[in-house]
Amino acid sequence: MGITVKSIVLIGAGLLAGIGATVQFPAIAQKVGAPLPLDELRQLSDVFGLIKTDYVEKVADKKLLSEAIAGMVSSLDPHSVYLDKNAFKEMRESVQGKFVGIGIEVSMEDGYVKVVSPIEDSPAAKAGIEAGDLITRLDNVPLKGLQLDEVIKRMRGQPNSKLVLTVSRKGDSKPLVFPIVREEIRVQSVKAKMVAPGYAWLRIAQFQEPTVDDMVRKINALYAQDPKLKGLVLDLRNDPGGVVPGAIGVSAAFLPSNSVIVSTSGQLPESKQVFYGRREFYAPPGAKADPLAKLPAALKTVPLVVLVNAGSASASEIVAGALQDYKRATVIGTQTFGKGSVQTLRQLTADTAVKLTTARYYTPKGRTIQARGIVPDLLVDETADGDGWNSLRVREADLEKHLNSDDGKPEAAAPTLGAVHDQLEEEQRLIATAKKRKPLEYGAKDDFQLQQALNHFQGLPVQLSKAEHKADAKAARISDKPEIKSDIKAEDKKIPVQKP
After folding, report:
1. Residue span of the signal peptide, if any (predicted)?
2. Residue 339 catalytic?
3. 325 is known as an active-site residue
């Protein structure tokens, strides 16, 4: 069981990990089948009546019924949820890659909101907000003790409305105050640049409706700079997922035509599907041309590394799993989140919907992603000194009421008291250095995992995870014992042995 550490999110974006393979908006009708449980429905009616007559104050009918629906859906698993008017609007904005806010990437550290980076040309960037700033107040209201989701809600608002940020900045003895006007922010889900002669970096921060088209433009720009790329790093770290057609399109860009990308299986016949790397599975509705047709042919064979971590979930795990199954890429980093379930959106009214888990995802080789995640080919920590906050993150298997993996294998046992103590000590150590630590900037020169990816391309030593070295040392000690030496096999290990 991990210790909860909030993942990086975009203010106002409402990044839900994995919107799902389908978005359906039919009128919901009662299906003919098993009879309704009348006794339980009568109890529900009785409780409703008791609250209306006996509760200390009046409660609106709409509130009671909405909360009843929300509780019923949320009792199923962590990703099934009732979306009221505001939540439904925010979800649609996130999928479209736009929202109203101030435009900053943040994380929660030591009880404060820490700026990872302002979005380019956003109101926050123009106002002077910098990476590493600690946001202590919003409109002069202290944020200490609030959950990150609550802070996000307070930062959202109407276009042209004002928000005042109070910021603590390293090197400044006094707080800084920034009045900022909210605007509609359009998030660029794809970034790219050359990181070394002959080597390029392509980052996907979230899978949105424009992701495939954006990726094509970025890749063509890279090949315009260097038509003979020797290697490409596909960075999916902290990518929480998004729309699945985007994941299929990204995978198809690197794989042979018509390759199986992912399959799903659930209770309904339509949930048992196989998704291929074909235009109809990733092109936007109404598109007349295949967006991937514009890509250079060399992309199918360029050496490829995929970077992942515990924040890589859902759609990003689909991509990593497909490229790993076909041995098209070497996956480097740490084990992914393990969110391998499909959420289908069923609209109830014009402004409300239910996001319901309807199937599980499987990689092309039939590996389950749910509660397992993708284990990298090469385990590499976030920094040279260790995996930092990434090692303390909660994964899908840690979530209460999570859907099981459906592969017949037992899940990890609960941690021992000693393991929990070690985790708490590590958390305290990380908190003590949170204000001093420079925020990790993906794609920068000091991006340790990216540098290990470049080392892999160039045949140089790759510094593997400290946890992996411990496993190697343990295996070496066991193999020194003649009576069991023959039982130690390379394939029993999580990853291939590669010493630095």
Report:
1. none
2. yes
3. yes
